[in-house]
Each structure stands twice: as structure tokens, then as C-alpha cells.
Amino acid sequence: MGPGFCGRVALHELDKGLTLSRSHWGGPMSAVRTDRMAARTPDGSRMLFAVQVAGRGRMVQRDRFVELAAGSGILIEASSPSKWVSQTETRWLTLRFSREQLLLRDVEITEACARRMDPAAPAMQMLAAYLGQLFEVAGGLTAPQRLDAGRAAIDLLAMALRGVVPSVPGCDGSRVLLDMMRRYVRAHSADPCLRVEELARRHNVSVSHVYTLFERIGTTPGAYLREQRLLAAQVMLSDPRCARLATPDIASVVGFVERRTFERAFRRQYGMTPGDWRRQHCHSGSAPPAVREEVSLRDDANER
Question: Looking at residue 117, what DSSP letter applies?
């Protein structure tokens, strides 16, 4: 760093280990992460995704040399040696997260590191715009909203990275996209307005492609959403802490607008009414974890 160098960093914590920062470096600089420094990284799974908002720079990691300009993105491993050099004033948005949060195979993540993401690519433009907007509003969000927004950012990153990951044996981009959609449905099943159109819009694909992906596990987006809502209702009906909640209230909490629609769907799925289920299971409270595990195993079996 040269004489008179100055910099500023502001940071929002979205969740434990998940942060979004904005930095401004006032002049030429060079930053080196040596082998020794990388080996001492407290969390070896720590990843950084940086968007260069302004300026120009160069990054070297894993023997890959990358030229970066405004709008470019790059994925970086904190546990690998690296060097970054800039001759200009620069501004960055940086998302920090754990490797396991990114829904890509380990080999795909490694291959995606230290590769320039084209600022003209639609997925990169969407991701950069989202991170910029999230930084502006994060301070006014509740903790659950920050967590949802952070997870959405990682989902968008996974989408964008699929465009820069070289062909990897056994790589199935459709499987990754389907996993992202299923996770999104599970996280937002209580929203009564969730529709297949929203899934398609959020994941930048057509509605017909969403249906095609869910056909791989023998269902439709609507049926999968309904199953997740019924699972949530089953958990609540089995929980003594929810005993005072009436059936219509539980239906509303899990995302059903009409009580009769909920009751018909519940009977069709489980062969009994919500009230009968509650009478048989609410006393123990032990059913929900087992039910969730069975469904997870069934889903995995269908995919195989």
C-alpha cells in the first residue's frame, strides 16, 4: 500500500458466518495471502465472493491469473494463498460464507474459484444488483429476513457460478437447480402466495422448465409445496405446545388459505382428519422428527 492510502469497510452480518460488506480503497494497493497465512485460517471452509463495483485489479490464486474490471465477480477460497493488485481506486461488495452453504459439488466449487465472472452475463448482473440492494436495506431487516436474504444471495451465486464452472465429470446442473428450488419451497412454504411462477422468476427459468425438473422426482411443484405444508401441519398437530391452536389457525400458519382445502388434502395424504391425527399423536410429541426423516429418505430414494 502506497503513501496516503486510505480505505473504508462497512459490514452487515446476515447470519452466523454469513456477512455482506462494502469496501472502498482509495488508491493503488497490493494484498498478499501467503501459504502460512492461509494455513492459519480459523475456518478452512470460508469462501468469499467479491463483485468489483468500480476500478480495475488483478487476482492470482491456484495458479490462475484473473483481470477484473467493474462489474466482474470472483469466487475466492480463504484457505488458499492469493495475491490481489490494483493500480486504481476500487470499490467492492463481498459476500462471506461457508463452503457447505453453496449448493454445488465440492469439485465444482474448486473449479469455479479464481475465474472471472463476466459482468455482461444476465445471472452476474442480477447477482450484483441484488447484493447492492441487499447492502442498502439490510440494516432495516429483521434477523429472519436477513437470513432469508442471505440464503437467496447464495442461491443466486450458485446460479451464476454454473455459467463459469468448466465441464466436470458427473456434474448435473439440473440437479443443483432442483435442489435449490426444493430448499426455497421448504423455506417459504408458509407463504400462501407462493406459486410456481415465483419459483421460475426467482431462479431465472421458465415455468415449463420448473415442471420438467420436478418430474425428475415424480411430482409437480404444486404437489411438492402442498406436501411441505402438510408436513408442517403434521408437526404442529403433534406438538403439545400447539394444542390450543384450532385447526383453521394451523392451516393458516402453514400456508393454506381455505380450511376445507387443508382438511381434504390432509385426509387424502394421511388417511385421517387433522383432528384424528392430533388425538392420536399430540400426547407424545415424538412423531414430527420421524415423519420428516421418512419423507427426506423417500425423496432421496425417488431421485436414485
Answer: B
Per the listing, cell 454445488 goes with 104
Query: Residue 113's domain is classified under what CATH number?
Result: 2.60.120.280
Please tell me whether residue 85 adopts helix, strand or coil conformation.
Answer: strand
Number of domains present in the structure of the chain: 2
* Coil, helix or strand at residue 249: helix
Residues 69-104 pLDDT 10s = 899 999 998 888 888 888 788 999 999 999 888 877
Helices (H) and strands (E) counted in the chain, each on its own, are 12, 9
Three cell numbers written together for 267: 385426509
Phi, psi of 113 (to 5 degrees): -65, 145
- 239 & 139 share domain: no
Q: What is the CATH classification number for the domain harbouring 193? A: 1.10.10.60
How is residue 160 written as a grid cell? 451464476
Model confidence pLDDT, tens digit, residues 244-281:
899 999 999 999 999 999 999 999 999 999 999 998 88
Question: Which residues span the domain enclosing 20?
Answer: 7-166
Please tell me whether residue 79 adopts helix, strand or coil conformation. Answer: coil
